Amino acid sequence: MKTLNQQKQLKEISLYLIFGVLTTVVNFLVFYVTKDLLALNLVVSNTISWLLSVVFAFITNKKWVFGSNDKRWQTTLQELFKFIFYRLLSFGLDMGSLIVMIDYLKFGDYFAKLISQFFVIVANFLFSKWLVFKKRKE
């Protein structure tokens, strides 16, 4: 029984990491396009990249990572609002750490973005597992 639970947890973490990497790729690509190709400022670029990566993450986390199979629209809406709320908290972490690392510590944009994403991924996993896609007792 313990081995089965450990395998399930390992699968969940593995899927989260895979989709977390894909979400980070979405985030970085959109950040690059908006900041470097469209020449938008840092805050606007980071906000747009965050929005698109949150949509991608919600869909993949709900369906494949945490296996939230409740199809009722009320449940999905509740999960979506919680997901967005906790992603807003991690967006604050992301934006705050970017500003500190770029403006005060003089890190390069992409190096700072990479470091901030590590903290964001950990925070988002914990928020999603414990607060958004909680397993409901039958």
For this entry, give a set of tags.
138 residues, mainly alpha
Tell me what the structure shows.
This protein is mostly helical. The protein has one domain. Helix 1 crosses helix 4 and helix 2 runs antiparallel to helix 3. It is globular. It starts with a helix and ends in a 6-residue tail after the last helix. The model has no long low-confidence stretch (mean pLDDT 90).
Number of helical elements? 4
Number of strands: 0
Q: Kindly estimate the percentage of residues that lie in beta strands according to DSSP.
A: under 5%
Amino- and carboxy-terminal Cα gap: 19 Å
Sheet having the most strands: none
Residues in helices, as a percent range: over 70%
Number of domains: 1
* Low-confidence runs of at least 5 consecutive residues: none
Q: What sort of overall outline do the alpha carbons produce when their principal axes are compared? A: globular
Average per-residue pLDDT, rounded, comes to: 90
What is the gyration radius calculated from CA atoms? 16 Å
Helix/strand class: mainly alpha
Topology as a string of helices (H) and strands (E):
HHHH
